[in-house]
């Protein structure tokens, strides 16, 4: 079984994409409903029943950072874990164990069923229309008509993961590639346009996951306050970037253990961005120390603080071949001739040929204005205090979380 199966091996390709358009410029002030005016918005509470261990997100981040040191990083742990969980439905024996353990799931009875149930609930929640935020998560299978899927697998991915299934002629690789890319471009409003590349006639199925997020901040930065300033990529390399500025109340925590400052900036619609600025020379310490426990500590210890906040406008992309990265998390067999995917098909000669993830983030000043700033006059009833300046003018990390769910996005801005 350990021998290479050669041309007889059929290949499944996994494609994952996300688009995050995050118009930056939030503060704790903002337009709220009549009921919400009675209280101050609290920072999000990460659910203890998340679809998978949030340490998976940070373990994967560390693997990506190690593979591409000093580079921008941006990806969706949720997108990747959704696809792995869906793939586990068709995996068997050690292949399944590796995937579930990689997601942080132990062998305890019922945990796998709970994993799929939680993803199902999350997908249904994301499918609901939202007033202030665009947030959608979806899955699709593109399957060769000559490739027979097990009915139990197909029914499970359609029922639990709300996946669409499309017949696809992989004997025409160019046509198949266009079909997949047109679908992804439509789901991500044109932000991801070339997810599928270099397909060939040996493919029998492509599994796609997409996540699309677009939100405004509770209060925008003023375009007039944006100025070109230095951003220190390294101690020797300095670039000029458009730096936004706003003085306001933000969630703030100084983590002395990890030598970093954390600023929480809420969106409209129950999502929050965390920008994490390590002390000079301490990025490695921050990256190595990030885990679920650290996140919980930050959320518990946040205080509202008046800050003079400087954030760069930026647009970065991430493109990753996870076949080269996931084995460092113990997920290996599925990409080799040892793969047991007999829950997907009765063919024994099937393995995952590639797992591709692409991501885009755009950050600028946009947000709501008008009455937003006025309401804040009644929100903070404390003595005036001098503002602390927090300037993100060197490499920093960012996370996007949505209330009571999982970490949606995770990244590092090394070069805006």
Automatic annotation (TrEMBL):
GO molecular function annotations of the record: serine-type endopeptidase inhibitor activity
Entry superkingdom: Eukaryota
UniProt entry keywords in alphabetical sequence: Protease inhibitor, Serine protease inhibitor, Signal
InterPro entries: Serpin_CS (IPR023795), Serpin_dom (IPR023796), Serpin_fam (IPR000215), Serpin_sf (IPR036186), Serpin_sf_1 (IPR042178), Serpin_sf_2 (IPR042185)
CDD domains: serpinA5_PCI
Family annotation (Gene3D superfamilies): Alpha-1-antitrypsin, domain 1 (2.30.39.10), Antithrombin, subunit I, domain 2 (3.30.497.10)
GO cellular component: extracellular space
Signal peptide (UniProt feature, chain positions): 1-27
Pfam families reported in the protein's UniProt record: Serpin
Keyword Cell membrane listed: no
Residue ranges annotated for the Serpin domain, each copy included: 58-416
Family: Belongs to the serpin family.
Protein name per Swiss-Prot or TrEMBL: Plasma serine protease inhibitor
Lineage of the organism: Eukaryota, Metazoa, Chordata, Craniata, Vertebrata
């Amino acid at each position: 079984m350990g021998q290479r199966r050669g041309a007889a091996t059929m290949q499944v390709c996994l494609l994952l994409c996300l688009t995050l358009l995050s118009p930056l410029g939030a503060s704790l002030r903002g337009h709220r409903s009549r009921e919400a005016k009675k209280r101050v918005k609290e920072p999000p509470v990460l659910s203890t029943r998340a679809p998978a261990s949030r340490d998976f997100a940070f373990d994967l981040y560390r693997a990506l950072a190690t593979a591409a040191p000093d580079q921008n990083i941006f990806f969706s742990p949720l997108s990747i874990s959704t696809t792995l969980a869906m793939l586990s439905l068709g995996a068997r024996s050690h292949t399944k164990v590796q995937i579930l353990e990689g997601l942080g799931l132990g062998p305890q009875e019922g945990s796998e069923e709970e994993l799929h149930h939680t993803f199902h609930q999350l997908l249904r929640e994301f499918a609901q229309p939202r007033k202030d935020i665009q947030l959608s998560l979806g899955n699709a299978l593109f399957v060769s008509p000559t490739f027979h899927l097990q009915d139990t697998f197909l029914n499970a991915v359609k029922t639990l993961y709300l996946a669409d299934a499309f017949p696809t002629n992989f004997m025409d690789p160019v046509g198949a590639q266009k079909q997949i890319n047109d679908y992804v471009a439509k789901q991500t409003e044109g932000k991801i346009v070339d997810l599928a590349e270099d397909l060939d006639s040996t493919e029998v199925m492509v599994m796609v996951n997409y996540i699309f997020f677009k939100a405004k901040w509770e209060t925008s930065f003023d375009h007039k306050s944006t100025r070109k300033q230095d951003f220190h990529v390294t101690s020797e390399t300095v670039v000029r970037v458009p730096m936004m500025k706003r003085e306001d109340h933000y969630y703030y925590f100084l983590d002395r253990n990890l030598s970093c400052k954390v600023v929480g900036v809420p969106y409209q619609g129950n999502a929050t961005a965390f920008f994490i600025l390590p002390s000079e020379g301490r990025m490695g310490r921050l990256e190595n120390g990030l885990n679920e426990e650290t996140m919980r500590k930050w959320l518990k210890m946040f205080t509202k603080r008046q800050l003079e906040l400087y954030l760069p406008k930026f647009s970065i992309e991430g493109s990753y071949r996870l076949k080269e990265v996931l084995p460092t998390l113990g997920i290996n067999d599925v990409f080799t001739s040892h793969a047991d995917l007999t829950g997907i098909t009765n063919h024994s000669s099937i393995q995952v040929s590639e797992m591709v993830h692409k991501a885009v983030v755009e950050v600028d000043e946009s947000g709501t204005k008008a009455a937003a700033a006025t309401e804040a006059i009644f929100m903070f009833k404390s003595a005036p205090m001098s503002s602390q300046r927090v300037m993100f003018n060197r490499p920093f990390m960012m996370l996007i979380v949505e209330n009571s769910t999982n970490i949606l996005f995770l990244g590092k801005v090394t070069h805006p």
